[in-house]
Amino acid sequence: MTTAFLQCIEDGCHRKHTLDRKDYRCDACGGMLEIGYDAPRVAPQALRQTWQSRKSSSAIEDQSGVWRFRELLPFVPEGANVVTLGEGHTPLLDVPRAGEWAGGVRLAIKHQGNNPTGSFKDLGMTACITEAAILGSRVTVCASTGNTSASMSAYAVRAGMKAVVTVPAGKISAAKLAQALEFGAVVIEIGETFDDSFRLLRALTAELNLYLVNSLNPFRLEGQKTIVCEILEQRDWRVPEFIVVPGGNLGNVSAIGKGLRELKELGLIEKLPRLVVTQAEGANPFYRMVANNSAELIPVAEPRTEASAIRIGNPVNWKKAIRAIRATDGMVESVSDDEIFAAKAALAHDGVGCEPASATTIAGIRKLVASGKIPRGADIVAVLTGHQLKDPEISLRRRSEADLARQRLRVEPDVNKLRAALERVLASD
């Protein structure tokens, strides 16, 4: 019999709480909570075989790259249904040209843009909306830079719940906004930054009995931690030297760190990869904290970057993230927007597209190799968090006039003029 509970992460506290609460702060010290389990020991080989065998099952939960690993998520009561859209099972692709561009590393990308709503958020959303359904919640809410709103809206409507989203006014990608509206969400534009909208929304969730699904919610991180199971399974359980993730609200690195810790405790892996977080220079409070060896994170009041998904100045998960970095002897790097878009272009030479925030990983790897902190030839998995079409306006705006003139031709509907245009294309390098 497995017992699941919420537990404070603060040293000297670790107080346990029941799962049926919507305020994820410790009653004793106000610290952040995570989900813990008292579970019977299972042989590692038996777990691997069980997870592998489910790939041939037609059951919807077995087709999910989250719930296929449900032994790591035993908070769902027996008989309860999970809310799933078949998320996960995303590709792990070698990208040799990008690896060479980044400094001569053996690079593979885990592309979370292949999820149902186009981002890694779906891994966490299936878990926390399932918990919302268990609790009987009727209204789910989130503050968002775009991807969370799209994901929550899809999973909420799947579960028959109302979705309400707050976003910074005029700062959300039209593509991401369209997704949330398509799924029936009510979108409230408020404040100038994600941090503004999150702070205001969080102040009202308990009063209005709303179910908050931002990554403060520990069930989100439970779903997101399964990405490491899939990465390692795709690598025949060979642990890479580095796993690199973008850093916004820092839920991803926190979740991956928790997943790695649990896999090691279960005997599924013997060593941990080093985790690397990459942030954009205009929104890099976590990088500054680590670089300055500070005990506390100092928020960035006005975060600025064209990588909108990580335009966050006060990441709520920094305490969980620093624990993951320290446990894995990890690193944090900061890159400029120009470096981000250069990395995005490098990935395109391998036929891989992603939203700008994802490309911070490749830019960060290049910078760390150049500084000698990552050796040439290192075995690296970079997580790409969002789909290429999540921020199309920025990608088009970043194309030079020369590139656009070369790539977008207009000719009159005349066969001779079309022939001439094609001949010019064929004659060019």
Strands across the major sheet, in which order? Answer: 4-5-13-10-11-12
> What composes the largest sheet?
6 strands, mixed
Low-confidence stretches: none
Query: What is the number of strand segments?
Result: 13
Outline: globular
Structural class: alpha/beta
Please give the count of helices: 17
Mean pLDDT: 93
- What's the CATH topology name of one domain? Rossmann fold
Specify the helix fraction band. 25-40%
CATH class of one domain: Alpha Beta
How large a portion of the residues is in β-strands, by DSSP E? 5-15%
Order of helices and strands: EEEHHEHEHEHEHEHEHHEHEHHEHHEHHH
Radius of gyration: 22 Å
Beginning-to-end CA distance, first to last residue: 65 Å
What does this structure look like?
The chain is an alpha/beta fold and 429 residues long. Among the domains are: 1-39; 92-117 and 220-397, Rossmann fold, CATH 3.40.50.1100. Helices cover 38% and strands 15% of the residues. The chain is built from 17 helices and 13 strands. The strands form three sheets. The chain has a six-stranded mixed beta sheet with strand order 4-5-13-10-11-12, sandwiched between helices. Helix 5 links the parallel strand 6 (139-143) and strand 7 (162-167). Helix 5 (147-158) packs parallel to helix 6, helix 8 (218-224) packs across helix 10 and helix 10 packs across helix 12. It starts with a strand and ends with a helix.
